[in-house]
Specification:
This protein has 2 domains: 60-289 and 341-411, TIM Barrel (Alpha-Beta Barrel), CATH 3.20.20.140; 290-340, Dna Ligase, domain 1. The protein has 18 helices and 22 strands. It has helices at residues 71-74, 79-82, 124-133, 146-153, 163-179, 191-194, 198-204, 206-211, 226-240, 260-271, 292-297, 317-324, 328-335, 347-355, 375-390, 396-402, 405-410, 482-486; strands at residues 5-15, 24-31, 34-39, 45-51, 56-59, 61-63, 86-91, 101-103, 119-121, 139-145, 183-187, 214-218, 244-246, 276-280, 285-289, 300-306, 338-343, 359-361, 427-430, 451-456, 459-463, 466-467. A hairpin with a 2-residue loop joins strand 21 and strand 22 (466-467). Helix 12 crosses helix 13 (328-335). The protein is globular, with a radius of gyration of 22 Å. Bound molecules: zinc ion and copper (II) ion. Residues 65, 67, 93-94, 218, 247, 364 line the site of copper (II) ion.
């Protein structure tokens, strides 16, 4: 081994490799876009050496739940994510994908991604091609959204799709998967999809099975009917013969606090019979479009954006109502279209879900909000700093596993999520003593502390608190039939 050369060599790192295994001391050599070797690499030399003493070197984090479809193109530095150590994002969640749809105006919640005319991709392949031609600083894998398909296909959204509409949506879904989408997402909670019966989703999932693709869902109800919605999700997975992924698992509303005890037990039982996965973000407040039914369930609501009243972004809805001289329900109506943060979960449920071994970490950040939920900038360092180090909810190794190895395995991101010879050099170097989220509900767009260096496909993407300008991100297309071969 003596005398070998590489491009970058991390010396004396504390390696947490993403598998959940205990940390160990190691040097890590990167050559080209991959990890060449690790261990004690005494005879090795490199173009560039990085002294990693006292620092943790981990696989780059995988944000499994994002709405970054447009951000990847609009702000390819991806600073909110790179600053947290994220090297791969999964977009197209909650039934909302930027493609395939051509529309000047879109209904909520599709407007969360829209800057006016942003939905301009007739085919999923067109979007992926643009992303490939104008790469971002980090990798992206994309889901195709059920609500996007409905908006593209149905004349009105408050009804079930007809047989011929389902056939058309199924054909578009199949074409999107063949272009490289990794699965189908739904947002059955939201108006554009809420009228879709379970059977519509099962039929739409038909192209997934043969292609080894995934079903990922923002369930119909995360509040009073959480357990019934979970049952619906598991049924879709079983009947379509596909893995069912539950997004941002939570129990919403005071009346439902504590219900994650039952939901996690049900998920654990289902996992013995069918492929199931779940993700969560580390906050007791959620965020989406502004809806009165959600305000009514929340102990407090903050406005994140409003088209007619951008000046109220960051303000509490009660305060907005006082300023407007009306009640909160009327204020919510006047702000439309708008977004909000809802304080509606219990800390105990959040901890229970995060600590559940199969739970992956996903931010669910909304990157185009004027005053976003802090999860956009803080999710990963908050899990590492607040929940693992300060609160001892799990070990640092488990925390890293939930955002790397576990996620890559579930989403079948080959060569990602582990620090191992031959794997892609997606790496995050952080200070385990200093790492913490600095984003707050008052000042959400604040970069985290303690993330010192981030590498994507062998190139340094983030260092000294800023992006390097490298655009080494790849589009991670679904690899045909992998699931069949693996079983
Ligand atoms: Zn969602
Ligand atoms: Cu979401």
């Amino acid at each position: 081994m003596a005398g070998e050369k590489c491009d970058i060599l991390f010396r004396n790192a504390t390696l947490i490799d993403g598998s959940g295994a205990p940390r160990r001391a190691a040097d890590v050599a990167v050559r080209g876009e991959r990890i060449a070797a690790l261990g004690r690499l005494e005879g090795w030399s490199a173009e560039r050496e990085v002294d990693a003493s006292g620092r943790v070197l981990a696989p780059g984090f995988i944000d499994v739940h994002t709405h970054d479809d447009r951000l990847l193109l609009a702000e390819p530095d991806m600073t909110p994510k790179l600053s947290q150590g994220v090297t791969t994002v999964i977009g197209g969640n909650c039934g909302i994908s930027l493609a395939p749809l051509v529309a000047e105006r879109v209904p909520p919640p599709l407007d969360l991604l829209d800057a006016g005319g942003s939905y301009r991709y007739p085919r999923f392949a067109d979007y992926l091609e643009e992303l490939g031609a104008r790469p971002a600083a980090l990798n992206a894998a994309l889901l195709v959204g059920h609500s996007t398909l409905r908006v593209a296909t149905l004349d009105r959204l408050d009804r079930a799709a007809t047989k011929s509409e389902i056939a058309r949506m199924r054909a578009i879904a199949a074409e999107s998967l063949d272009a490289g989408a990794i699965g189908l997402s739904t947002g059955l909670f939201y108006a554009p999809a809420n009228a879709a019966p379970t059977e519509e989703v099962i039929e739409l999932c038909a192209p997934l099975r043969a292609r080894g693709a995934l079903y990922v869902t923002h369930m119909r109800d995360e509040a009073d009917h959480l357990l019934e919605s979970l049952e619906e999700t598991l049924r879709i997975g079983r009947e379509a013969g596909v893995p069912a992924f539950i997004s941002h698992h939570k129990a919403a509303g005071v009346a439902n606090h504590g219900k994650t005890r039952q939901s996690l037990a049900a998920i654990e039982a289902a996992m013995r019979a069918q492929p199931v996965a779940l993700d969560a973000y580390p906050y007791a407040a959620s965020s989406t479009v502004l809806r009165w039914d959600m305000v009514a369930r929340a102990s407090k609501t903050l406005v994140t954006w409003s088209t007619p009243h951008p000046e109220f972004a960051g303000k509490a809805l009660d305060e907005v109502a006082r300023t407007m001289g009306c009640g909160p329900e009327q204020a919510a109506a006047r702000l439309q279209p708008a977004g909000a943060v809802y304080f509606q979960m219990s800390e105990e449920d959040v901890r229970r879900v995060l600590a559940f071994a199969p739970t992956m970490i996903g931010s669910d950040g909304l990157p185009h909000d004027i005053h976003p939920h802090p999860r956009l900038w803080g999710t990963f360092p908050r899990v590492l700093g607040h929940y693992a180090r300060d609160e001892g909810l799990f070990t640092l190794e488990q925390a890293v596993h939930k955002m790397t190895g576990l996620s890559a395995r579930n989403f079948e991101l080959e060569g990602r999520g582990l620090v191992a010879p031959g794997a892609y050099a997606d790496l995050t170097l952080f200070d385990p003593v200093r790492v913490r989220d600095a984003a707050t509900f008052e000042h959400p767009a604040t970069p985290a502390e303690g993330i010192e260096l981030v590498m994507v496909n062998g190139q340094i993407a983030w260092r000294d608190g800023r992006p390097s300008g490298a655009r080494a991100g790849k589009v991670l297309r679904r690899q045909a039939g992998r699931r069949d071969r693996a079983s």
